[in-house]
Every structure is written in C-alpha cells, then in structure tokens.
Design goal:
Keywords: Signal. Pfam families: OMP_b-brl. The protein has 183 residues and is mainly β. It has one domain: Beta Barrel (Porin). The chain has one helix and ten strands; from the N terminus they run αββββββββββ.
Length: 183
Amino acid sequence: MKLKVSALVLATLVSSPALAGDAGTSYAGLQYAQASYEETVYGYDIEGDPSVLVGRLGHYLTDNFSFEGRVGLGLSDDEVTVNGYDTDVTVEVDHLFGAYAVGHLPVTDVVSIYALAGFTQGEATAKADGMSATDDDSGFSYGVGGEVNFFSRQFSGTLEYMSYLDKSSYEVSAISAGVNYQF
C-alpha cells in the first residue's frame, strides 16, 4: 500500500506544472542588492554596506538547470565602520561581472528554490578626505535563492543571498530582491 501511495504522489509531482524554466527558454532580470563588505585588519573589524543594481541574463539547458551571466553597478556608497564606530571613509562597488551555473528545484507550481555557483570579478573604491583607492579581485562565488511567479508563468520575483567573494582577509556578500522575465 505504501508503495502505491508513494508512486501516486511521485507521479502527481512529476506531472504537475512547476516553477522553473523550460529547456531552451531564456530569462532576464534586475535585482536590488544590499552588499556587505567585511574585513579584519590587525584585529580591527571594517564593514561597509553599499547598494548595487544587478542585471541577470540566463538560459535553461534543461528544465531545472541554467547558465547565467550578471553585471552589477554600484547605486550608492556607504560609510565604513571600524569596530562599530563611524569613519569619514566611504566604500562603493564600481562594478561586478559574473558567470554561474544554476540548479532550480520546483517546490510548488508557483514557487521554486535555486542554488548557484560560479565566478565573479568585481571592483570597489574607498574614498576619504579627497583621496580614493580602487581595488579589484575575482574568485569563486555561490548563493541560494527563492523565486515566486506572479501574474503569469513568465514573471517572477526573487529573494537571494549571494557570497560574491570570500577571501581569507575579507568577504563581499549580498542580500537581494528582484524580478525576472522568461522568454
């Protein structure tokens, strides 16, 4: 009996429409990301939270697997804190570029979760007293998110955590919300 019920449940799940993509379709989206820069230097905790606008373009190779490219541009800078104290230094993201493999897991016909991993290159600038310093880096990136369809199967909203760069001396991560359109 348990086997029959399990088979029936599995057949229902497999045959029901689910949120993810259809093989061969593409998607584009925009995200507002609140980035977090954290670094420890000689025992001092340095933090800044600039905002970033991220554009996404992806293509489904199968119903549950896609490749995605991203371009991000800084929207606003943020005042840097050292051990929780404000400073006269600001930090901003100049740009980020990334390429990722994305696995999508439908939860219901309108909700899915996803995980992504890939490579990011980014550049940021710190400014203080009329001086500035720019630095760039690249490395492995990973993240998880959720997606909900609204209005139609083509439009969805996303909520995501992404670790863009996680080096031994610093980390750049972001929480973002956005919209996608499948075509």
